[in-house]
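Incident log, support desk, overnight shift.

02:14 A customer reports that sequence design results differ from what the structure should imply. Their input is reproduced verbatim below. On-call engineer (initials T.W.) acknowledged and began investigating.
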């Protein structure tokens, strides 16, 4: 699967900002599209991602450090995707549709581990 980086503004020549973006991306090992293999629809992933990003904003996190919108090349062509840190992916899983058994299992396992 090919990954294509997406930026809203390519005109920036600020080398410090570009360095920070590269540094943040270095810690992003998860893709929202990974949930497609777990039975979660693209529409539900998008909804969960919007809620996860909103939760990060409300909590005062720098969203740029945890979420990077991008495009991924799949069998059916290009589609919107998002690269995330472990925390970002956890927020996505907590905000994803619980009708997918894999999501419900993850949420349960997370709570069991936290409550131990």
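02:41 Re-run completed on a clean worker. Output:
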């Amino acid at each position: 699967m090919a990954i294509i980086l997406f930026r809203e503004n390519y005109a920036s020549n600020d080398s410090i900002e570009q360095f920070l973006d590269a540094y943040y991306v270095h810690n992003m090992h998860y893709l929202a599209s990974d949930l497609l293999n777990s039975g979660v629809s693209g529409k539900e992933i998008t909804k969960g991602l919007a809620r996860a990003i909103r939760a990060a904003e409300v909590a005062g996190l720098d969203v740029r450090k945890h979420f990077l919108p991008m495009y991924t090349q799949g069998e059916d062509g290009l589609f919107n995707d998002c690269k995330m840190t472990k925390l970002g992916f956890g927020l996505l899983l907590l905000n994803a549709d619980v009708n997918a058994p894999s999501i419900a299992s993850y949420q349960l396992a997370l709570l069991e581990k936290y409550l131990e």
